[in-house]
Every structure is written in C-alpha cells, then in structure tokens.
Specification:
Niban_1/2/3_dom; globular; alpha+beta; single chain
Amino acid sequence: PCLTWLCSPLAERTGKVLGEFCRCYQEQYGVALFNSVRYEIEGNGGPQAQLLHRKVPLEDHVIYSGNLFQYIEENKKWRNRFCVVPHNYGLVLYENKLAYERDLPPRVLVNSAGYKILTSVERYLELVNSSLPGVTPKSGHSPILKCPTDFPLILWHPYARHYYFCVMTGKEQEKWRAVFQDCVRHCNNGISEDSKVEAPAFTDAIRMYRQAKEQYGTWDMLCGNETQVLSNLVMEELLPELRNTIGPRLKGKAPERQRTWIQISDAVYRMVYEQTKAQYDAVTAKCEQERPQMESTIRTDMDQIITSKEHLASKIRAFILPKAEVCVRNHVQPYISSILEALMTPTSQGFAEAREVFFKEVTDMNMNIVNEGGVEKLAEYMEKLSHLAFHPVKMQSCYEKMDQLKLEGLQQRFDVSSTSVFKQRAQIHMRQVGQGPGSSYVPPGLSRQGWGVGTCSCKCAGGGDKLQPLLTRGCPLILQKFDYDSSTVRKKFFREALLQITIPFLLKKLAPTCKGELAKFQELIFEDFASFILVENTYEEVVLQSVMKDIMQAVKEAAVQRKHNLYRDSMVMHNSDPNLHLLGEGVPIDWAEEHGGQPEAEPATEKRRRAKQVVSVIQDDEGVLPYEVGAEVLLQPGSPKPDPGAPPSSPDGVEKIREALAKESLGDEAEEQLTNADLPSGAEVPHTTPASPAPREDVPSEAGASHATPASPTRGAETPSPSAGSTCHQPSDKETGEVSPPGSECSSLQLTGTTESGEGVQTEF
C-alpha cells in the first residue's frame, strides 16, 4: 500500500515519542554510570557458578534444520522450504537444501522477537479480527488464510508481518513448535546483560517513560534488542491513531481489508524501526562521548556524591517510608507467600526435569559407548552432551513445566498483564543452568585436551567394559553441583519476580499521595551532582526497601521446604575445590573462637586451614543427608570428636546441635549479628565488633528485568539511616540455627579441564 501521505505525520509523531525517551535515557545513563563505578569500587560479587559454561556455546553450529511448507503471500501459494536455525536463533529459509549446501542467498530471514507461535488457524483468526475492530468476515466467506494440512504453524506479531507454515504430521508440528518457541525465547532476551551501564540505563528509561504515562506493571513487548523494544514502544502509541485514521478508508471484503491492514501495519513498523535506530544510535553515541568526563567526576567526587545521596535518601525515607510500610502491610505482605508458591512449584519442577534429562542422556551415552566400541565414540557423544541444553526438542519437557504458572486472582490484584515474562525468564535460566553439566562433565581419567572427532586420550584405552566405571564416576558430582547452581539461580529468580510484581503495584498505590511531593526534594541535590542523583530513582529505592525485607525472608523460609530442593545461602559445596587436600583435613573449626570476643589478626594460611567444607542443606525429613556433613565442625571445644568410621549423623543429632546453638545465642545477645543472606562466593565472614552496624543483605537486580533497581550496592543507600528511626534487625546464625562458613576460599568451584566448542560442523538434532 502507498503510505506517502502518512510519512510526514508518522515521522513527526515518532520523533516526539523518541525525544521524550531520549531525555529519560540521558538522565538514567548518568545514574547507571555512577552505580557501575561505585559497584566496581565498593561492590562484591554474588555466588559463583559451580559448573563451567561456554561463552559462545554453539558458535558455527546449526541448532535445527529441516523442511516445511511456507505460504507465499505474493502469489498466494504454498512452497516447500528448507529452514535452518543457526546459533543466533534466527530463522533462515532457503529454496531447498541444495541451495543451503551451495551457500546461495536465503529467501527469508526472520528475527522472531515479539512473535507468538500459534498452532491453530482459528486462534489466529481471532487475533486478526481483534486487531481491526468492526471488520469480521461473514459466515460463508473465505477466511484470510486456508491451510492445506491440519498442522499449521503461524508466527503472529501485533505490528510486524506474519509468517505461515505447515507440516504433514502432528509429531513434526510439535518439533517445529518447540524450535520456533526456542527462537522466540532467545530473541526476546535481546538486551545484553553484560552491559553494566547501557542496559540498566535503557530498561530504567523505558520504565520511567511508561510510568510517566501511568503505565505500571510488566510489559509483554519488552522483547528483542534495544531498537526493537523502542519500536514497540512507539507503535504502542501510534497504532490506535493509525487504526482510527486508516481503518475507515479500507475497501473490499473483510478478508481483503484484514490482509491490507496487516501489510500497512508491517510497513509502518519498518518505517518506525529505521527512524528509531537512527535516533537511538545518536543518543548512545552522545552519551558515550560524554562518558570519560562524567566518569572522571564520579571518581574524583565519589565521597561527596554518596554523602549527598544518603542525605537525600534519609529525607525521602522519613517522608515516604511510613506510608509505604502501611501499604506493604495491608496490600502486599499477606500475598507474598501465595505468589512465591505459585512461582516456585512450576519452576522447581522445570529444573528437576532438566536434571533428569541430563542424567538420562549421560546414562544412554555410557551404555552406547560400552556397546559400540569404547573410546572411539566418546568424543562424538561428549560433543552432543555439551549441546544438550540447546536442543529445543529434548528440553521442551522442561520448558513445558512453566506453562502451569498461573497467578489467577493475584494477577488482577497486582496488575500483571501476563505471566509470559516470568515463564520465559525461568526457561532461559533452565537453559543457562542446564548448559553447565554438559560442558563440565569430564569423566575421571579422561581429558578433553586434544579431543577430535573419533579420537580421545584416555588412560584406559581398552574396551567399553573398562571404560564404564570411569564414565559413571563423575556423574553424581556434576549433579550435586547442578543442584547448587539451580538453587542459587532459582532464589535469585524468585526475588526478582516478586520485585517485578510488587514494586509497580506499590508505586501505583503511593503515586496519588507521594509522587506530587517529590519535587520539593530536588533542592537537596547539589547542581554538580544532579547528573548522578535523581529524586525519582531514590524514591523508588525507598519503596523497594519497604518490601525487600519481607521478600528476602519469604525466599529464605522457602529453603526449609524440602519439596523445592533449595539450599541455604551459607552453603559451600562438598568437594568443591580440586585442591581441597591442601586445606588441612584434620583441623576442626572452633566456632566459639571464630564468632565470639574480639577479632584477632591471623595469617592467611591459618584462614585457609579453617576453610572446611560445610554443607547447610535442609533435609531433616530423611534418615541420611544427601551430602555428608562434617558434624565435628559444629561441636564446641572440648566435646568428644566423633569416630571417623561412624555413619553420617542422624536428624536427631542435627536437632541437638541446633538446640545447643540456640541456647548459646540466648546468652550472647551482645555479640554482633551475622547475616546468612547471599554471602559472596570467595569472601570471608567479617570479624565485627558490637559497635559495628549490621551488614546488609544484597538487593538483587537484573538489567532489563527488575522494576526497581537499587542505585548503589552499599549500606548507605540500602539500609535506613538512624535518623529515620527504621533500623532493621537481621537474624544471626545462632538465632536461625544455620551454619555460615567463616572462610569461603573453596566455595567458588570451577571444574578442571577445558571446554572447547566444536569445529563448525553442522549439527542436526
């Protein structure tokens, strides 16, 4: 359709929306840069993954390929196409397989960000009818699309072009549906999490822009790269106006008008995309040019900026916190456990399924190697195992568990438009964590160095019967480490999801009484620091603090529920360091000396000798713990040491130890409180005096996911100041009965051995 007459009004309207966004982005860029530099100087990392991951796991590999039928709109015919899904998860369509093998140009390239995968023509027609109200084909008229088979696959987008495919059998349809959903899932996650400044600035600017329009809560179209997300933002405002302007001018029968409308929407989306890309690139280049000067100012005046921000936060806290706490107590706190349970059940089932898929694959691999000729096949099978988490069909059973996620009444109460945001995020975590076992599984006695297809270096170069014990020995350890990574990732996901649900709800509730009063706090910010401190961001941090304690406590209590298989934050993996024999096996930890009295300086070698493997796992319902716990580390000085040959302690023994710790804590209330929450891997528990302030619990944030990102990682911005009168008591290890390792040098595990990606051969699953 000819849209020449629309070009000028569209460009003007698009420029206005982008101008407002770019202003928000420049404001958020300074805040994000300050947070990044401050975290670099003062921050500490979270728990380290126990399993190795490849940075580019599928480079030069093909995820999936095969034939299907595509509907060509130009001639209204169905044609056979050869579809290839490369490592970047784009859909590449060739004329046929021969064209692909000859490296001929593809017919179609599809970036599937923002698309929905439909397997029903009826469902597709419902969406098309709703996109252009008042235009519905009458009964007896041919619909907009007819499928030659009973197994369609339709890619639907609210603004862009639609793609129509079909296959011959239901089994093929399920396979391609899993492949397409994997592509959508990956492309939706298009904002790089490696960017510590640009990504937070972009997502916060999107959120601030929408909140200024009184649009709170999750947004389904926050998908794709930055240009795609911005194009969706513009189209969200343009489309209603466009529909009202163009809809009445469409001619012809209903199916023809619907087809014309889809083409117009796609053409407008492409125009908006081009203009958006140019303006966004310009504003990012401008910010990047100003970055060195801004960063120099931050590093020079860091202390003054922090002091100014803490002063502003204390004033806002005194004004906002009482109202926020009442709102949390009445409208949020009663529902946190229900939301958490609704999130935990399908998520934990999905991760458990991923664990089972890996275990089954290793078992099958071991049997095949034993039966098919030993080490000659080992390299080939190990390469397939390392790609298991990226196999869309085999992982589909894990992803489908998240389809059970339903917030029901909670969704309406907290204004959550859709659960798809949480489903896709959990599924991405499953793939990321599931990547670890396949990349890290190296049977004892074998080495990946020098592996090639069909060759392997091995101490045991004999038959498969001699190789089998080596293959099976490494699997349990890998599964233990998978459980640890899974627990860490799930708890982080639960905290972030709870924040995404509750923070927008609180901001919307408090807006009528609080937001209008924020302007008076602007005068508290020094003009030189106005680029790094924003009243709106500080206000959101205070709101976040009002609910964060309840969220952290709810997730912490969830670790007690054995059905979810979550570990406590103080856990250190058993056998986590390949050089663990250097830590001094026979030296027990003196907990009374460690956490009582004044701290004393001691050499680093002595600290390492005390770094024992302590597992703090809630499994009291079972007679035997899943990992052996060294009970001697919990005994008081002078207590008899247990027999080294004795079996693991029973649950009764655990209860006695906890009772003893609880009794001791009653007499030691003057001691410093030690928190268990999110101890950074590789960091020691600090020796503190009673006069020291209680250490804070880290507030999780994620680029592009969290709705209220803390502006700083330190105590000053996250802990209520004494002047506000809202100090928070953190439970000590003795009060909770948990064990936190005094030194965690061995908690950051990386398996030995190298992981290398394949040599670029095509991998068809």
